[in-house]
């Protein structure tokens, strides 16, 4: 019998720790796992895996040997990390053991992708992953090894012909896009805050992929301040049509929670309610298009108590086919633990009160394009750039 979901977790993953004061606080992972347990999600219907450190050859398919060596050196001597490889910087400080924990996160995403592709599990979740900024030869944006890239590369090695990567982090999924820029077998879709105001400063509508894969890179760059209705409208005006045209055999998605209105590093204004809806949308598309083959990853998210744990617990619950209504009370034991350990009062409900019966109203693209709306203008730029490459109608698909 197929297990419903394979989930990557072990307490040791909190060792991905850049140090006190760094935005990527590993407690967000611990609190997510504890909240999942509080809802009984880590039970017999799922398989919890804690991968070992993979052989360097797994990483070397997407990262240069020189970079891997530099990370391993920084693991032993953090104070002598080589900044030429993006290590020992303000964004990516080196720490003891940085290679092992980063490599294990990458192996986790590869392992859940393997389970999904081989039919051992229906869905895979690695909320410790989604480290989409790591480049072939350098660390970037709090990301050491690109676990999504490792998973996608493994799938290609197995002969998978069409893989869709969908990234809804507030920051552009630049590292994954770079790795598969000229590969028509991989469709990368990134919906993010415009690079004119936000790191990494890339991901514009005209960035369409290499000469051998034009249209395989899809970038929807949204203006600051976009809320639930605009965010969901933009996603649904672009991603489903392109995915249906591409016909992926598996979907890998990245669910950075930094689109939230409380996130300190980005400028979007999205609720946990909308993030849950989008996770459900990608889950539904996986069942519509590729027999449910879906690998869901974490990513950014720097409001580590009020936002990240709820968002990724929803993601895990959706993958388990046990969605949690947004008006559900957060388990009291989890709230008490947060107060005792962190001195904070976390939200008491699993949503932000932004939806009614778990639904948020947004205008579908079919009701018309509003040239005065900055979200519609951004969306239209992406449709104009991308849709012709997929044989899609600019106005109706």
TrEMBL record:
Keyword Phosphoprotein: no
The organism's place on the tree of life at top rank: Bacteria
Classification via Pfam families: Hist_deacetyl
Cited InterPro entries: AcuC, HDACs, His_deacetylse_dom, His_deacetylse_dom_sf, Ureohydrolase_dom_sf
Keyword Coiled coil: no
An example Gene Ontology molecular-function term: histone deacetylase activity
A single BP term in Gene Ontology: acetoin catabolic process
Signal peptide range in chain numbering: none
The protein's annotated pathway: Ketone degradation; acetoin degradation
Keywords, alphabetical: Acetoin catabolism
Sequence ranges assigned to domain Histone deacetylase in this UniProt record: 22-318
UniProt similarity note: Belongs to the histone deacetylase family.
UniProt protein name: Acetoin utilization protein AcuC
